[in-house]
Design goal:
The chain is built from 13 helices and 15 strands. With 382 residues, the chain is α/β, with parallel strands linked by helices. The chain has one domain: Luciferase-like domain (TIM Barrel, Alpha-Beta Barrel), CATH 3.20.20. It has an eight-stranded parallel β-barrel with strand order 1-2-3-5-10-11-12-15. Strand 6 (169-170) and strand 7 (175-176) form a beta hairpin. Helix 2 packs parallel to helix 13 (363-376) and helix 3 (75-85) runs parallel beside helix 4. It starts with a strand and ends in a 6-residue tail after the last helix. The relative contact order is 0.15.
């Protein structure tokens, strides 16, 4: 049964001149003073979410985005600081992009955050989707298979480091420790100092595609998925695949158990008003995400959103279509209650729902949506 509600914010400061008629994504350029307002937004949202009964606040790690879309480069630093500014709210890493880290540095940093926050920072891992940031850090992104191979080995290293007092690892990318002399003996094992206090470490990862290898890896490593913005058929396929993969490794779970559902939504007095108010945010998200391969657009459609006014007119996806397929939720508070009651009935294992801020959504609009959700939707599940 659903009982855990969380908010998420990827780190945008873009909130004007948005939508298909607004500024092109690649033409945006924010000053450093504007970009660091991201941290003020994060603090404001965190305090507001906690005051409204949300249990967790998730943020995203990204780099080199002067366009102002995702401007948080270090989740552990920001999350740890936010635990000092709030009382009970947990701060989720959604997600640390592992290929841009040495796995032992990431493991050490999380261990410190776990200890200093007394368990209020939640660990999350991702493979990344921006070539500009991942390849700049010297990791593969264009080669998806190489990216996945590196990521999986890195996660295996971190799990060993978290869970074992002494560990070693011999793989394709990492030989840990190196066999070197150290203070009179030959080095054969390492100890992570410090190790997280809260064991076993709960690890979350986005489940984006129904790739059998990726789902099998999550099941084998005990990783919990966030599945966001999926139409009903795609969601069911992933949940069924995950349940089957877990059973293969001896972990029998209810359908939807240890899964979080992420949702893009807008609540208003009617479905029609919700759609109209959400339209510019849907369009800005498309401008941002389509050319990165996150939204399923054709080459011609991507060219249109990248070069508005410089390509011939093409038909683009609409928010009405997204609402019809279920990848966006727009309607009244009662519509949302009925939707999530239906989710509970179909997937009895589901406990967690995440309400996301969408690219271009102003701070006050997102806070307003969290308030409505907390006061008019959440009580139906408590």
């Amino acid at each position: 049964m659903i009982h855990n509600f969380s908010a998420s914010y990827a780190g945008h400061v873009v909130d004007e001149n948005i939508g298909l008629e607004g500024m092109l994504a690649n033409d945006r350029l924010y000053s450093n003073d504007q970009l660091i307002e991201t941290f003020d937004w994060a603090l404001d949202i965190a305090k507001h979410a906690e005051s409204k009964g949300f249990e967790e606040f998730w943020m995203a790690e990204h780099h080199f985005q002067p366009e102002g879309y995702e401007a948080i480069p270090n989740l552990l630093m920001l999350g740890l600081w936010l635990t000092t500014q709030t009382n009970t709210l947990k701060l989720g890493c959604g997600f640390n992009i592992v290929p841009m880290w040495h796995p032992l540095r990431l493991a050490e940093d999380f261990a410190m955050a776990d200890i200093l926050s007394k368990g209020r920072v939640i660990f999350g891992v991702g493979r990344g989707y921006h070539t500009r940031e991942v390849e700049t850090f010297g990791a593969p992104m264009l080669d998806s298979d190489a990216n996945r191979e590196l990521f999986e080995e890195q996660v295996e290293v971190m799990v060993k480091a978290f869970s074992q007092e002494k560990f070693s690892h011999q793989g394709k990318h990492y030989q840990l420790p190196p066999e070197v002399p150290y203070r009179g003996y030959q080095l054969k094992e390492l100890t992570l100092v410090p190790r997280p206090i809260n064991q076993p470490v709960e690890i979350w990862q986005p489940l984006v595609s129904a790739n059998p290898r990726g789902i099998d890896f999550m099941a084998r490593m005990g990783i919990k998925p966030l599945i966001a913005n999926n139409p009903p058929a795609a969601l069911e396929e992933k949940l069924q695949m995950l349940q089957t993969a877990r059973a293969k490794y001896g972990n029998e779970t209810n359908l939807g158990e240890d899964v979080a559902l992420g949702c893009r939504m807008f609540i208003a007095e009617s479905k029609e008003k919700a759609i109209e108010r959400a339209r510019p945010y849907f369009q800005e998200a498309m401008k941002f995400a389509g050319p990165l391969g996150v939204m399923p657009l054709t080459d011609e459609q991507n060219a249109a959103v990248v070069n508005k006014g410089r390509t011939r007119s093409v038909s683009l996806p609409t928010i009405e279509e997204a609402v019809e397929t279920g990848s966006w939720l727009c309607g009244t508070s009662q519509d949302m209650v009925e939707h999530f009651k239906g989710v509970e009935e179909k997937y009895p294992g589901i406990e967690r729902v995440n309400v996301a801020a969408v690219m271009g959504m102003p701070l006050e609009v997102y806070k307003e949506q969290l308030t409505i959700f907390s006061e008019e939707v959440m009580p139906a599940f408590k």
